[in-house]
Amino acid sequence: MAPFFIDTHCHLDAAEFDADRDAEYARAVAAGVGIQVVPAVSRDNFAAVAATCERYPGCLPAWGLHPMYLHVHRPEHLAVLRAQIEAQRPVAVGEIGLDLFVRDLDYDTQERFCVEQLKIAKDYDLPVLLHCRKANDQLLKHLRRIGVRGGIAHAFNGSPQQADEFIKLGFKLGFGGAFTWTRANNLRRLAVDLPLEAIVLETDSPDIPPAWIGRGRNAPGELPRIAQTLAELRGLDIDSVAQATTRNARELLRLD
After folding, report:
1. Inter-residue contact 154 to 129 (CB < 8 Å)
2. What is the value of pTM for the model shown?
3. Residue 95, Cβ neighbours under 10 Å: how many?
């Protein structure tokens, strides 16, 4: 039997898949990717995420307001987010967080939206999917103060010390295409040194393509090969990596 994988972060609703979404979903399922978590990024794509998850078995929604879409967010969208959670219970609140890499994103506004969404996640006892680009310490500060029920530090690229702090707070660390590049020395060290029970797999499709795709579009069907790279780096077989990362994701997201 082929290994079973969970893609904990996949934007299958994105316009990049409009031409071949059915085929890419089928390819992922055939490769053993039985569950895909599809995070929203703004109020404007709640409907697209909902439609994707209704059409494709094993696709599960997360609702959130992404910091890179700050230009479309409005304060009243936080109430819309609560209503969406009430209408269709997600597996997590996300994609939310902070981004200090993109310079023209107002930090104070990012922080307000992030903090309010962390409070929403706590209110509904949901984990969070965190966008944490160049902002690990800032997010850790808010997580300690607000006390959400864990989550995933998506596309983690911090220090071992920051990784340990996320783990202490009940978080898993998301690894995807970025660590498959041989020049990604920090990520590859983390992939080897972190406890396997702290790692979950993701593609962030259509973004963060693995090395074998280069600058092309990423897709959820690439997850098994990403897992194979992790297995090779750690000196494990693919079944062990699939079982561990799937178990980690199931426990965190409370999946049956």
Report:
1. yes
2. 0.98
3. 28
Q: Are 179 and 188 in contact (CB under 8 A)?
A: yes
Q: What is the pLDDT along the chain (256 residues), one digit of tens a residue?
A: 789 999 999 999 999 999 999 999 999 999 999 999 999 999 999 999 999 999 999 999 999 999 999 999 999 999 999 999 999 999 999 999 999 999 899 999 999 999 999 999 999 999 999 999 999 999 999 999 999 999 999 999 999 999 999 999 999 999 999 999 999 999 999 999 999 999 999 999 999 999 999 999 999 999 999 999 999 999 999 999 999 999 999 999 999 7
Domain of 38, in residue numbers: 5-253
- How many CB atoms are closer than 10 A to CB 71? 10
- Between CA 6 and CA 245 the distance in angstroms is 8
3-state secondary structure 196-248: HHHEEECCCECCCCCCCCCCCCCCHHHHHHHHHHHHHHHCCCHHHHHHHHHHH
| CATH code for position 208 | 3.20.20.140
- The domain total for the chain is 1
DSSP H helices, the chain, are: 21-30, 46-55, 77-87, 107-123, 136-146, 160-168, 185-193, 223-234, 238-253
